[in-house]
Amino acid sequence: MKTVIVTGAANGIGLAIAKAYVNDGAFVYMVDINEKRLNEEAGKLEQTEAITADVSNYEQVKNLFAHVKDKSGTIDILINNAGISKFKSIWEVTVEDWEGILHTNLSSVFYCSREAALLMDQGGAIVNLCSTRAHMSEPNTEGYAATKGGIFALTHSLAVTLSEKEITVNAISPGWIHTGNYEELRKIDHDQHLSNRVGKPEDIARACLFLTDESNNFINGENLVIDGGMTRKMIYEH
Ligand code: NAD
Q: Is Oxidoreductase given among the entry's keywords (predicted)?
């Protein structure tokens, strides 16, 4: 049975990823800072353990992996999904805001990947949740865009370094993935995508299974864009 760690697993994309691995027969450590929601969601699933931790905090990450080592010994797969998308006017962003998003979205990926790699004895796979915002932007998204650009670069750097341990490291860049009520979306929301629909968390979960399947280990250091074609649209004003 594969052992998987999913961060930010109490909601949205992370929850869908945790469910997909459970359905695939894996044991999943579901990690999140939101204890109440995490326990509610993990309680509905077999083959999981809920671990409350703030992945932006190095001590908490070390404790989390020490617990996993005690219980499972080794792990096979890490999905670095936890993240926050706070957008704020560039003129109002505080140093606290800046450092908060940097550590939550980017430092966490480094902390968790290094600890996970130490527990991957038989090779393994890491997937980092990046974003199409690593490559293009709306106004007032500096912090988020910078962290996702950092994840893009960290992904290929980790892939090169961890090759000696037979660990593949890839990123997924989702576009618009609706984590709320899908029915509330408007026709215009769907129609602006080449795929004629807004994305769902399961679209990302299936890609995680694909990228972490050993038979796909020739895909390494890559960034898979899953955005219904949104970033392939050329936008001229006519
Ligand atoms: P979400 O807000 O629905 O879920 C994120 C989860 O991460 C929450 O349960 C939250 O409690 C947890 N979390 C936040 N900070 C944490 C911390 N410090 N420690 C542990 N857990 C923490 O978000 P989502 O939309 O499902 O996004 C998941 C990932 O996908 C994020 O990295 C996000 O940047 C990325 N992404 C999402 C979209 C999208 O459209 N939804 C698009 C591009 C990228």
A: yes
Ligand 1 center from residue 238 Cα (angstroms): 36
- SS3 state at 103: helix
pTM beyond 0.85? yes
Q: How far is the CA of 85 from the centre of ligand 1 (A)?
A: 7
CB 109 within 8 A of CB 151: yes
Q: Does domain 3-232 have CATH number 3.40.50.720?
A: yes
Domain ranges of the chain: 3-232
Residue 52 beta carbon below 6 angstroms from any ligand 1 atom = no
The β-bridge partners of 224 are: 172
Residue to substitute in 5, 7, 11 for testing ligand 1 pocket (most ligand atoms within 8 angstroms of CB)? 11
Q: Give the residue-averaged pLDDT of 79-104.
A: 98
